[in-house]
Design a protein that fits this description.
four-stranded mixed beta sheet, four-stranded antiparallel beta sheet, elongated, alpha+beta, Helix Hairpins, Adenine-n6-DNA-methyltransferase TaqI, Chain A, domain 2, 442 residues, 22% strand, 24 strands
Length: 442
């Protein structure tokens, strides 16, 4: 692949040709890319489902096709089902709902489903001969369509959550396109990158599943007093002891209130930990910048410290009781009042306590302590948390279990970093293999 080719950045409609920064050797002297409208490159798919029994699907940005029963908990097609569009493998579908990743709507290629039923408010189309599905799929992943459609969107989403984009406007989108041979070469190259990413993602998920299974073996299950799997030196150590959580942690310190409201002119800006920084046992020091007046600053107790466990005491039903271990000091980040910092008591290995509370049983036990009506914010009281009965072994066994699972966490983190690197590599590769168009991120 040669990188001597210069990039042409221009607005579609302003110039008729585009050239990427890199082209494969056999295309170094090939003509520049020409913008092709979806109206020219494809045909609309508008066949109705009728009486056929197919899976009703929706589209989620960043994921693609998802059965409605999985996304919404039920089939929402109702009386409209027969009017749904029959979509086959090889067809594209445009969901004109906005999202963070695709503000002007997302387009996905149906593969491996056979035939499905897609809502008729979506726009379905099929490429004509001479155009590569894989090439166009990567163009849509880059949001080339959205960068043009945003010029035609004059208002927000309608009551049904869909943007007011007509079929005529949509099929007027132009995609800079080379010959079919070059399209397929680019598609094959990026498909190889996708295969590496998918393989690495499976490896990461397999490690996470292995950890979940191992934790079920290393911690006693409900009604049991010993784990099903113990390290050799502890096989004759006897039952774990049932004790209140207060025997393992010395305090539950809450943070400072960050309620919004008018702030005086004389103020300080302080980093306050986001509640989303505590999720699935993983702590990421994500922060919000919050303004405090002089009096409020004095109420900020202390920053987030290492060797503590952050517990979400107030949140949605799905997240109340979420907790995570803090490995390193965060000297400039303070707790909000929705989070607690559990501090160690002498003779406690806090990494073990964090793993115990972060297990499926630990999370469920904390969540069950929460009060509040169904569907509303839930809240856990400090006394109930400190009184929570947990099972714990001797300090040496606590440390052995924690060291084992921490090593596995380190491996998962390393493999996750490899996955992120592969994704970054593909993104950079796409920036080289496709021409820059006005409005692209550069």
């Amino acid at each position: 692949m040669n990188s001597k080719t210069t990039s042409t950045a221009t607005k579609l409609g302003g110039s008729s040709t585009f050239t990427p920064k890199r082209r494969f050797p056999e295309f170094q002297h090939a003509p520049a890319w020409e913008p092709v409208s979806l109206r020219k490159a494809s045909v609309p798919v508008d066949q109705r489902v009728g009486e056929r029994k197919l899976t009703p699907v929706s589209i989620s940005a960043g994921i693609g096709f998802v059965p409605q029963a999985e996304k919404f908990g039920r089939d929402i097609s109702g009386n409209q089902y027969q009017l749904y569009t029959l979509v086959r493998d090889g067809d594209f579908v445009f969901n004109k709902g906005n999202s963070l990743k695709f503000p002007q709507g997302c387009i996905y290629l149906l593969e491996g489903w056979g035939r499905v039923a897609a809502p008729n408010v979506f726009i379905a189309f099929r490429l004509k001969e001479g155009y590569s599905n894989g090439f166009f799929q990567n163009c849509f992943e880059q949001n080339q369509h959205g960068k043009q459609l945003k010029r035609h969107i004059t208002s927000g989403a309608r009551s049904n959550g869909l943007l007011n984009i007509s079929k005529d406007t949509f099929f007027g989108v132009e995609i800079p396109t080379p010959s079919l041979f070059e399209q397929e070469k680019i598609a094959d190259c990026l498909a190889s990158a996708d295969a590496l990413i998918e393989a690495q993602a499976r490896k990461v998920e397999a490690l996470r599943a292995h950890k979940r299974g191992l934790m079920q073996q290393l911690f006693p299950q409900e009604g049991e007093t010993q784990p099903r799997l113990r390290f050799p030196q502890f096989e004759t150590a006897g039952d774990w002891e049932e004790i209140p959580l207060s025997a393992l942690v010395s305090a539950l310190n809450a943070g400072v209130s960050v309620d919004s409201g008018d702030r005086p002119a004389m103020s300080h800006e302080i980093g306050v930990l986001k509640t989303s920084a505590v999720k699935n046992g993983i702590f990421k020091p994500l922060e919000n910048k919050v303004v405090f007046d002089d009096e409020e600053v004095n109420r900020v107790r202390e920053p987030v410290r290492a060797d503590t466990i952050i517990i979400s005491r107030m949140n949605t039903p799905a997240l109340v009781g979420a907790n995570a271990y803090v490995k390193d000091d965060c000297p400039n980040i303070f707790l909000p009042d929705r989070l607690w910092a559990a501090k160690p008591r002498s003779g406690t290995y806090m990494r073990f306590v964090a793993l115990m509370l972060g297990s499926d049983m630990g999370r469920a036990s904390l969540s069950n302590l929460a009060g509040g009506s169904s569907g509303s914010m839930k809240n856990i009281s400090k006394p109930r948390v400190l009184e929570l009965l947990v099972m714990a072994p001797s300090l040496p066994e606590q440390q052995r279990i924690a060291d084992c699972l921490t090593s596995l966490d380190d491996l998962i983190a390393a493999e996750t970093q490899k996955l992120n690197t592969l994704r970054t590599h593909k993104k950079g590769l796409m920036q080289q293999l496709f021409p820059t168009v006005e409005g692209d991120d550069v």
